[in-house]
Amino acid sequence: MERRDIQEIAAEIIDEFAFLDDWMDKYQHIIDLGKSLPPLDEAHKTDENIVRGCQSQVWLVPSLDGSQVVFHADSDAFITKGLIALLVRVFSGHTPEEVLNADLTFIDQIGIREHLSPTRSNGLNAMVKKMKMYALAYQAMNKS
Amino acid sequence: MDIEAIRKDFPALQQKVYDKPLIYLDNAATSQKPQVVIDRITQYYQRENSNVHRGVHFLSQTATDHYEATRTRVQQLIRAEKLHEVIYTKGTTEGINLVAYSFGEKYVNEGDEIIISQMEHHSNIVPWQMLASRKGATVKVIPMDETGTLDLEAYRKLLSDRTKMVAVTHVSNSLGTINPIQQMVADAHAVGAAVLVDGAQAAPHMQIDVKALDVDFYVFSGHKVFGPTGIGILYGKEKWLTDMPPYMGGGDMIELVRFDKTTYAGLPHKFEAGTPNIADTIALSTALEYVESVGYQAIADYEAELLAYGTEKLRSIDGIKLIGTAEDKASVLSFVMEGIHPYDAGTLLDRMGIAVRTGHHCTQPVMQFFDVPGTIRASFAFYNTKEEIDKLIAGLQKVKEFFV
């Protein structure tokens, strides 16, 4: 399969949402994305992998596949999980450098920015930070 | 009660969110403010602004008079015996912390016990835990049943001569339960314990009578009674307040300051260090006057109607489970939806213009007890309507469709 860069995937997501007229369709799509993201194995839902939000919980499991970072994630809330599915789709399968340099303006452009706000206590913003931290750690590992 | 006229007094209720008329059902978190309260704050800053208790000039005297007039209004409203039993705080949380610190310093020792309940807000748990660890005391918890009613028999068994303080909420913020404070106070006094009541959720719904309740301390917040944020009330019986050491040191709380010895001011100023929140204190009086003009009885009757209507409607939806079904309840509906996370439901309701609170409501032990990650909470004030409840119900039906 041809490897696409982060910008291309983000553009594809923007296109996908552009077809959805109103907020109900957008949220329906996010919820459906959440439902279709395979659940994490219960064994991975450990304290170590949890990203605490006041409202919904997020679990994030990183791994390195050759030179590429792979993320698996889950949440107890479907809207959060749908947004996670988008982030996993954008970040997974890229080098640590690409993950670190990725810009997330596509979240703005699909009109769901509020969920990624640092003041929204759903764990998503903390998850993005953690994803980048793991990328940074892998980058350091690769260099040493 | 003319609800349409009352609603017009609240400018925040007139707005639209996401192009839909705002339906504000998050009154247990904070209430909206009537225009008279907003105007009172503006008037203070436009014409009366000056510091209190210090000036010899006209403005300072005016500000001090208005600032102190709030104390008198509160005293009369809650039927405190003495004016100086009314202490200004930032809010309920500060009131509890003040008592936990100052009462704790004076009266709580190693081996003593503090009793709280299973339905307390974190702010009526943590300060007591802090006190307990400071003094080597123990915190005991009154259990509740599956309706969200406290087990009074268990409570009586917890009481002993080791009990120094019983700290309990008047109305539960996450369940709506109204606790039988009068009875609980009598039981506590029988073993010589003092009682602090967290009235944050009670004050918006009923007239508090500290004399009839015979409580030792009663705390509530201005912002939940249609007043400003940053001002709250601590009522305390004189016999305790007099002997309790100050909580914070600074200006306004002293009598004489010398480097070798400082003496403290009398009540209430001993507990009010520093320049206070003058504008909001003055506007609190306006808020309470407004509530009194609506009438506590009228409010209680109308809110009971809303609660009964909302409860019945919610029960008609499949897959909804009410959390908190005590016999005596304030107008709070806490519930969960089968297979739908409260965060998801709250997010979708928000897009429909309906403001509810979701999550653990700062009562994690309650969520643990009911084994839910959180609840959806709709809490009503006297300006809410049955039409708004209908819209909430329609909104919940729509939420369900998202997850089919």
Question: How would the blueprint of this fold be written?
Answer:
The complex is a heterodimer of chains A (144) and B (404).
Chain A: H1 6-18, H2 23-36, E1 50-51, E2 58-65, E3 68-75, H3 78-91, H4 96-101, H5 105-109, H6 124-143
Antiparallel strand pairs in A: 1-2, 2-3
Chain B: H1 3-8, E1 16-17, E2 20-21, E3 23-24, H2 35-48, H3 58-78, E4 86-89, H4 92-107, E5 113-117, H5 126-135, E6 138-142, H6 152-158, E7 163-169, H7 181-190, E8 194-198, H8 210-213, E9 217-221, E10 232-236, H9 238-243, E11 254-257, E12 262-264, H10 278-294, H11 296-315, E13 320-322, E14 332-337, H12 342-351, E15 354-355, E16 357-359, H13 364-370, E17 375-379, H14 386-402
Parallel strand pairs in B: 3-15, 5-6, 5-7, 7-8, 8-9
Antiparallel strand pairs in B: 1-2, 4-10, 9-10, 11-12, 13-14, 14-17, 16-17
Structure description:
The complex is a heterodimer of chains A (144) and B (404). By secondary structure, chain A is an alpha+beta fold. Helices cover 50% and strands 12% of the residues of chain A. Chain A has a three-stranded antiparallel beta sheet with strand order 1-2-3. Chain A starts with 5 loop residues before the first helix and ends with a helix. The mean pLDDT of chain A is 89. By secondary structure, chain B is of the alpha/beta class. Chain B folds into two domains: 3-26 and 295-403, Alpha-Beta Complex (Aspartate Aminotransferase, domain 1), CATH 3.90.1150.10; 38-292, Aspartate Aminotransferase, domain 2. In chain B, the strands form five sheets. In chain B, strands 4-10-9-8-7-5-6 form a seven-stranded mixed beta sheet, with helices on both faces. Chain B has a four-stranded antiparallel beta sheet with strand order 13-14-17-16, with helices on one face. The model of chain B has no long low-confidence stretch (mean pLDDT 97).
